[in-house]
Amino acid sequence: MTYCVSQLAEYHLCVFFNACRASRVAFLAFAVLLYGVAAHAEGGKAIHFRIVDGQLSEGPAVVRVSEGETVSLFWSADQASQVHLHGYNLLIGVGPGGPVEMKVLAKATGRFPVSLHDAKGHGHANKPLMYLEVYPK
Fold first, then answer.
1. Is residue 124 left, alpha or beta, with left meaning phi > 0 and alpha meaning psi from -120 to 50?
2. What CATH class is the domain 44-135?
3. Which residue(s) pair with 45 in the sheet?
4. How confident is the model over 82-100, as pLDDT tens digits?
5. Which of 88, 93, 96, 118 is 20 to 30 A (C-alpha) from 124?
6. 39: pLDDT confidence band, cut at 50, 70 and 90?
């Protein structure tokens, strides 16, 4: 069997582009699988909040989750202070340095306020920043 130069070139180009297409498909499949594993490993919702002048300036006023679910609340603030999730007794320090994670495994059901304390832990003078609502399964 004999091939002319143009047929061989066409054959090699066809093989090359099919191989590239197969590589792209394999890469995309791997990326989708990796994203799914990463999302599963995180195990729940991630919600970001920002506090400016002692008030919630970004983020929802209410976060709703189901019992047994994990939620990560990421907090940043313009001033050093503390964020307190009542009912779960979680207290984290926040400030201008960047977001700080408050990871919550929703074990107790109900409506739980999140309030702001000053850097020394004193607070509750203001209304809650937001509420975490945990619903039974």
1. left
2. mainly beta
3. 71
4. 999 999 999 999 999 889 9
5. 96
6. very low
Q: Token pair for residue 48?
A: 């970001």
Structure tokens at 112: 């739980």
State phi, psi for 46 to the nearest 5 degrees: -130, 120
CA distances from 110 to 13, 64, 134 (A): 64, 10, 5
Structure token digits, residue 39: 């999302």
Give the C-alpha separation, 137 to 134, whole Å.
9
Instruction: Report the distance separating Cα 110 and Cα 120, nearest Å.
Output: 28
Number of H-type helices and E-type strands within the chain: 1, 9
Percent above pLDDT 90 for the chain? 58
Residue 44: predicted pLDDT: 84
Which amino acid type is present at position 5? V
Is residue 60 a contact partner of residue 87, using CB atoms and an 8 Å limit?
no
